[in-house]
Amino acid sequence: MTLRLPSSGGGTHPYTPRPAPARRDPGGPPPASRTVFAAAHVVADPAADTGPDGPAAVDWDATLAFRRHLWSHGLGVAEAMDTAQRGMGLDWTAAAELIRRSAAEARAVGGRIVCGAGTDQLPPGAHSLAEVRAAYEEQLAFVEETGSGAVLMASRALAAAATTPDDYLGVYSELLRQAAEPVVLHWLGPMFDPALDGYWGSTDLDAATETFLQVLSAYPDKIDGIKVSLLDARREVELRRRLPDGVRCYTGDDFNYPELIAGDEQGFSHALLGVFDPLGPLAARAVRVLDTGDVKGFRELLDPTVELSRHLFRAPTRFYKTGVVFLAWLSGHQDHFTMVGGLQSARSLPHLARAYELADGLGLFPDPALAEARMASLLTVHGVGR
After folding, report:
1. Are 217 and 268 in contact (CB under 8 A)?
2. Cα(187)–Cα(198) distance, rounded to whole angstroms?
3. Residue 250 to residue 152: CA distance in whole angstroms
4. Do residues 252 and 188 touch, judged by C-beta distance below 8 A?
């Protein structure tokens, strides 16, 4: 069958879907040469009677099933991060329940997991540094009690309260002193969340980097790694080369991840990526090829996915979650295209149609006929026929 897909410039164009799936990856053990986490999305409950400003309603069965899918391919799960709509529909009450359930599931299946600890239980409005630190401490303690590793997420409340780099140094120093196990520090750029502009005390990224490195150098034994989400490969490489011994760099660069994971003669990045949610099986297979020392084979598998990733994460980047959930629906991981907070409306129909084309071309859909039928149904709802 041929679909008539909407074009970004107006009108439609014909597209003939792939007749059969690409090579199926049966899954396997975690990659050996890199530590790889997929930041996972949540599946909304489509029957819940709630609005964009209401409490998040989550389909727990489908959400946990998707995490088992990622673990079955040897990937770790980064839970309750921005990919899970943290701060964009997922409130702390739902995030805490998500962390609790996912950590228990990880223990049951032997899956690796890290979970985001932030300050989003704070009510709207201004807060003191002491209040921000206390909120962080509460969430860090909760994550550690579940037995999960912790990711100290960038905090909107801290960005609003801090006035100098020393404010960041003070808050993070207290948190790291209290951490029971090494944590991951997350530097999320303003392209993912405009409220984080000027994080680490400066809009000058060179100055912000120096403050960030001060934290790392003061507490290297309390830091498992850093996740850098600045979409700037050069800056990540330069920062990676300055890390204290034993501190990993987890790339969060959804534009340049193949080259950063492959690395160079001076080192490489591990991965904690939102795009590995839809790319899970393919990404795991690519990194296992890299385990053998076959950099060329790794790049041949992963480089073609960059066009899709750049499309999903194009500006406004923070709405990439819509494309991620859309692809999960087309892939059969959930029965509907609904998101908490109504975020399914955040991307246009031409944007989603292009995501479908690119994903189908990569052979990402386990059942291309199902993906085609679901794409056709979405076109029908929007008044675009075959």
Report:
1. no
2. 11
3. 13
4. yes
Rounded to an integer, what distance in angstroms lies between the CA atom of residue 270 and that of residue 280?
A: 15
pLDDT-based confidence at residue 54 (cuts at 50, 70, 90): confident
| CA 291/CA 120 separation, integer angstroms | 38
CB-CB contact of 104 with 146 (8 Å): yes
Q: Is 54 helix (H, G, I), strand (E, B) or coil?
A: coil
Return the ∠ at Cα 206 (arms to 203 and 210), rounded to 5°.
Answer: 105
Q: Tell me how far apart the alpha carbons of residues 5 and 150 are, in angstroms, rounded to a whole number.
A: 42
10-22 pLDDT, tens digit per residue, is 899 999 999 888 8
Residue pair 77/273 in contact (Cβ under 8 Å)? The answer is no
Show Cβ contacts of residue 369 under 8 Å, excluding neighbours closer than 6 positions. Answer: none
Give the list of residues 6+ apart from residue 32 with CB closer than 8 angstroms, or none.
Answer: 288, 291
Pair of tokens at residue 370: 């199902």
Question: What pTM does this model have?
Answer: 0.96
CA distance 118 to 102: 17
Average pLDDT of the residues in 184-193:
96
Contact 236, 230 (CB under 8 A): yes
What does DSSP assign to residue 7? Answer: P
For 354, counting Cβ atoms within 10 Å of its Cβ (0-12 exposed, 13-18 middle, 19+ buried), the class is: buried
| Euclidean distance between CA atoms 190 and 235, whole angstroms | 15
Cα–Cα distances in Å, from 80 out to 44, 47, 271?
A: 14, 22, 16
231, two tokens? 């979409």
CA–CA separation, 161 and 273 (whole Å)? 28
Judged by DSSP in three states, 277 sits in coil
The helix or strand, by DSSP H or E, that contains position 30, with its residue range, turns out to be none
Cβ contact 378:352 at 8 Å: yes
How would DSSP label each residue in 326-384? Answer: HHHHHTTSSS----GGGGGGGS-HHHHHHHHHHHHHHT--SSHHHHHHHHHHHHHHTT-
